[in-house]
Amino acid sequence: MNRLLIVDNEDYVVNGLIEVISQLSHLELEVIGAYSAREALDWLKRTKIDIVVSDIRMPGMDGITLQQEIMRYWPKCKVIFLSGFNDFDYVQNAIRGGALDYVLKTDGDERLIEAVEKAVARLRDEIEIESLIVKSKNQMRMAFETLQQDFIRQLLQGERLEERELSRQFADLHIPLQSSMPVLAILGRVDEWMENVSHYDRYLLLYSIRNIAGEYLDTMVTQISLPVDRFNIVWMIQPKSLQPSSSLRVQEDTWNMMIRFVQGTFEMIQAACKDLIKLDLSVLIADTPVGWAEVGGKFALLRSNLARGLGSGRKVLMIDQQFAGNGATESPMLMDAASLIGNLASMLENNRRELFFNLLDELLLQRDSESQEKHYFMAASVILSFHTKELKLRGTEERWDLGRLIFPDLMTAPHEAADYLRKCGESIFDFRERSRGESENELMTKVKTYIADHLANDLSLTVIAETVSHNSSYLSRLFKQNNSVGIAEYITDCRIRLAKELLEDPGNRIQDIPAAIGFTSVQYFYRVFKKVTGKTPQEWREATSG
User: Fold this and answer.
1) Which of 101, 227, 283, 465 is packed most tightly, with the most Cβ within 10 A?
2) Taking Cα atoms as reference points, which of 26, 79, 28, 19 lies closest to residue 49?
3) Are the C-beta atoms of 537 and 526 separated by less than 8 Å?
4) What is each CA distance from 352 to 159, 344, 432, in whole angstroms?
5) Is 404 helix (H, G, I), strand (E, B) or coil?
């Protein structure tokens, strides 16, 4: 919705043009009137104005000066000048200042409507979807590395996508790896940071490690790397020359050769890091490549083994198969409990209902009782934290049996415990939906109350939005969504309903009613009333008084 401001020092001109332009429903304009250039300036400072229709000759500040102020506040605003004089010099100055059009008051309403339609079309052209897409793509190219890393992090945290969607995401984000081929994960750790290293310097040094590794690896492999936290970096690697269509024998040989290359190359990378940036780097290389659906579990296993198996060793370089038989048989899910809790909390925080319960089911459907118990309490801690954070669901804690949630019978009734945990999770999502609905209902009540109390006053969308502290465009959409009628139409209905009540009292003069209910002119009131009721105000009074 665009906002149009009409400026003229003659009240009848402003009121008449408001009436004319307000009827152009196809343009979706909010129309505001200002009866001086100074009042217009107040509107310009108060809210965004898209189109201004202004007299060019006004006392105090003329239209040309006002135009300069308009451009200072809203440079994309379209200005249409009105004048009672066909003054060539004024026309030249107006156009030179960037005015869209110049309309003589003697030209009639059709000429002005044509100019307003031209302004709306120009605004629409300037925000054409194609130009926005081009601009967005240019911005995205600059942010591709960040977007790539965010997406890979999601995969490392266990998110799974269908092959088609995975392939599309790889293509959209220009990820250099192939979604249809397995990938080899490598985890590196800075063994110790020097004292007093700032967050910025630490980030630069991690970036330097990735650059050093890239210089050595890029000749033979395709890779993407990203910092996991302030100590760890993960590399995702595929052979550069291998294609998914290659025979199994070729694929096996290529992967084996690449793993040997990677192992030898990381020895040089470790040495370069020590020589160039004075950092010790420990590295753990996965024993086998895995498909993208399993990469989260493999990463969790690497992370656990790097922390548990290497201890405080420095500059260690190992293949993950060296941990086989060391008791590292836990589910990869348990290896990264913090990540799982973070995922559950994020899904709950962001109302991702389906994803939340998909992950919850995956956690709870463990075959061994030990894993199931650990996963249960991890999930329960997340749900309880939200229960507390959101004021115990404002009273719904009465429906929660906290003893049953905290002390479940996992030995004899694990399915009942899991079902109750899900039920508690469902109650949080249900509460959010109710709260959102209640908030919207409360806002609609405020808006309708304000309208009812101010029918005789200015009820522009901007004024109403400011009163309830909301953006006017958002409020307009929300009102229509909740009431199946636009806010302007609702105001008109309220005013006509009040007019009918006033007409029922013969002591009220018909000519006084328009001002009492917020109409700027008697003629406009007559037209609207007849359009809504099918009768003139006089006919309505006569019909109801009989």
Assistant:
1) 283
2) 79
3) yes
4) 13, 9, 12
5) helix
DSSP E strand stretches across 177-316: 184-190, 221-227, 232-239, 281-285
Neighbours of 446 (CB within 10 A): 15
Q: Angle 144-156/295-309 helices, nearest 10 degrees?
A: 80
pLDDT band at 333 (very low <50, low <70, confident <90, very high): very low
Query: What would the two tokens of residue 172 be?
Result: 């959209």
448, two tokens: 């309708």
> Please, what's the largest Cα pairwise distance for the chain?
103
Q: Which two tokens stand for residue 274?
A: 């020590």
Give the contacts of 124 (CB within 8 A, at least 6 positions apart).
none
Joined together, the tokens standing for residue 456 give: 């005789």
pLDDT for residue 394: 55
Lowest mean pLDDT among 37-46, 79-88, 199-208, 473-482: 79-88
- Which CA distances in Å does 53 have to 67, 68, 70, 100, 173? 10, 14, 12, 10, 46
The answer to whether the beta carbons of residues 67 and 99 sit under 8 Å apart is yes
Beta-ladder partners of 221: 239
Q: Are the C-beta atoms of 282 and 188 separated by less than 8 Å?
A: yes
Average pLDDT over residues 118-142: 74
- Closest CA relative to residue 49, chosen from 127, 125, 119: 119
Is the separation of the CB atoms in 5 and 34 below 8 Å?
yes
Strand order across the beta sheet in which 2-7 lies: 29-34, 2-7, 51-55, 78-83, 101-104
Torsion region of 325: left, alpha or beta (phi above 0 gives left; psi -120 to 50 gives alpha): left
Burial of 538 (0-12, 13-18, 19+ CB in 10 A): exposed
HEC readout, 450-481: HHHHCCCCCCCHHHHHHHCCCCHHHHHHHHHH
Which pLDDT belongs to residue 324? 44
Question: What confidence score (pLDDT) does residue 369 get?
Answer: 64
Strands of 13-160 (E only): list them. Answer: 29-34, 51-55, 78-83, 101-104
Phi, psi of 43 (to 5 degrees): -65, -40
For residue 310 the two structure tokens come to: 């290497």
**Side chain identity at 270, as an amino acid letter?**
Q
